[in-house]
Amino acid sequence: MATLWISFLAYPLVVLRINTNTKSLDPQWSRLPILAASVFVITIIWRFLLKRRSYLRLTKAVNEASGLSVPKATWLTTVAKSRYRRKLLVVLLVIVAIIPFVSTPYTVNIMTTALIYITLGLGLNVVVGVSGLLNLGYVAFYAIGAYTYALLGYYFGLSFWICLPLGALFSTILGFLLGLPIIRLSGDYLAIVTLSFGEITRLVLTNLGFTRGPRGITNIKPPSFFGLNLNGAPKAFLVEHFGLHPVMDLNRLFIYFIILAVVVLTIICVYRLENSRLGRAWLALREDEIACQAMGINRTRAKLMAFALGSTWAGLAGVVFASQITFINPSSFSFMGSIMILSIVVLGGMDSIPGVIIGAAVLILLPEQLRFFSNYRMLIFGALMVTMMVFRPGGLIQSVREVYIHQASDSPPEPRPVVATPSTMDQEILND
Amino acid sequence: MDFFFSLFMSGLTKGSIYALIALGYTMVYGIIALINFAHGEIYMIGAFIALIFTMHLSAPPVSMTGWTLLLTVAAIAAIYSGMYGWTVEKIAYQPLRGASRLAPLISAIGMSIFLQNYVQLVQTSNFLVFPDLIPQIELPLSWAKTLNRTNFIILIFTALSMATLTFFIKFTRMGMAMRAVAQDPTMAQLSGINLDRVISVTFIIGSVLAALGGLLIGCSIRQIDFYIGFLAGMKAFTAAVLGGIGSIPGAVIGALILGFAESFAAGYISSSYKDMVAFIILIIILTFRPGGIMGTTQTQKV
Questions:
Q1: Chain A residues with CB inside 8 Å of B211's CB?
Q2: Which residues in chain A have their CB less than 8 angstroms from residue B236's CB?
């Protein structure tokens, strides 16, 4: 049934191809059986997965109701939440650090992009995942970072290392200024205002004179390594002793390690932030604003902080991006960019750091892997996004709320250390 | 003064097309609180279907002309888009009912990417010339100075669809059910309204209006490609929010404001700033009226 339906739907678009040269319709009947066959197979798989999903839900509900077993987390979530996660992260870091020495420049480039998107994802996660403010113009802050470096480098010859903090600072300030008027908007209104802000930023960059409009800025310098020419002697040394790929551009390699450092820094900062007083306030605000205000949390302040701090990472990533790609123009920062970053956050699992990392890896590396399908890759990509959401709406790694246990209020009776109990104190006093 | 009037008319035309698309956004949002990103793609598909069937029907075996052609093509495009809207809802949104708010949003984005690439693959990524479908009609001479026949037909079409929609929402059983679901889905279900059916009908109506928008924009701009849905969708969404999302008259007013703003900005400032003016107006209005023009700000209760 579904096959017939879809084939009927797709018939005019697929079969009747418009021929632009002769301005007539060009029937392509051979496409129809292929279409029908693929739709048939996909429908069967889809049905099966849907059945399985509802079965799983049912068993879960029954188990929970009868108290038989605790809801089981999937293996990905289990791994991400196990006590080995720190060690796992370190191992992952080492692997990622070794990669450039055993692979091609192409891989390094893709990996750099993936790492940039991890930073962006982690930053947006603070805004969307943790604080629940839907920001659809995140790419604007990324653009601010990139243009900070490009313009300051172009007009004043400022170096990468000065621009890195400056880019982050400008983004933060801009995030704060934008946040001021709009933070009291709720949910989707906030989304559309941030979206328009992103578009305005892009249009301003396109139309202003000193940003050189759509031509963009070319020849952005790579970061300097204490004034050393990395492609000279150091390269020969690395190629000889560490098995580096001979055509590798060492500046690119350097950028790779810079962004790796930025990612590590981001992970640490975001982790600490989430478990700070402010981070808990964000979580609480996301769940229930009114209760929060009743508990004395300053709503406006907390939300503004989330907005501004989230933008900081975009600024950092932007500076690195400009130095990696050496050419930027406004069209690098379209609405699709914001959507991409948002997809990373949601696909990976909201409010979960390992989730964002995996989400970025999947979304950036997957289209590269799908190059095998050439033209079909974005088609498959879109379909995969829908499938992911239908079957795992919580993202790849569902976040588990951190449990804070207050040491003194452990209810199960445990043999307490004798020092602080009232009885011993009494005795001590008596002894005195 | 003539310049002003021609800008006014072009703003009105543009605004009414935005309104047709914005209605789809606002109705879907009103009922299931979802920003339907794939809506712009439905509009694009509507334009493509219209083009394909125009070529099909105006060619020798059938060779229709004039009003018959325009109306037949409009009907076919509307029906097909309605079916596309229905299918998209069944595949991408219905399984996600009850999930968190962002999951259907991402699913919608995925659907939008899918549909864009689907049309690009099976058709072409080039611009296609859209034939002039508007029949030759004689306008009174005093109007003809500012209003050409394309704009005239667009206005008539839009006004008719709005009137039909208003009638449908206000006076039919289904319309009443839709209003009930928009107010309180749970309560509506308890009083015997089939939620799934209401949602399907909403998607179908939205898609039909979008397809009409696609057909009309094709007639007025005279070229289409697979990417037109994106910008139009974004503008229409902006219009819907501007008027207060979820409110039907709000969407129309928002769309008209947007159309006028763009057209006047293009005429008096510079055409490269016209998109910016639209967005700036949006930010200003939302800063002072956070619920949109016709929207109601709800007071939250514990």
A1: none
A2: none
Lowest mean pLDDT among A25-29, A257-261, B81-85: A25-29
Number of independent structural domains in chain B: 1
Does the predicted interface ipTM exceed a cut of 0.85? no
> How far apart (Å, rounded) are the C-alpha atoms in residues B197 and B178?
10
pLDDT at A125 over 50: yes
Show the DSSP H helices in A2-84 as ranges.
2-15, 31-66, 75-81
pLDDT in tens, A95-105: 877 777 777 77
Any domain includes B136: yes
**With 80 as the cut, is the pLDDT of residue A209 above it?**
no
Alpha helices in A157-186 (DSSP H): 160-182
What is the enclosing helix (H) or strand (E) of A389? helix A377-391
Q: Domain map of chain A by residue range? A: 2-66, 88-391
- Note the pLDDT of residue B207: 92
Specify the CATH number of the domain A88-391: 1.10.3470
Predicted confidence (pLDDT) at residue B139 exceeds the cutoff of 70: no
What's this model's pTM, rounded to 2 decimal places? 0.78
Question: Does B266 reside within a domain?
Answer: yes
Range of the domain at B226: 2-288
A381 contacts chain B (CB < 8 A): yes
Q: Is B216 inside any structural domain? A: yes
Min Cα separation A65/chain B (Å): 19
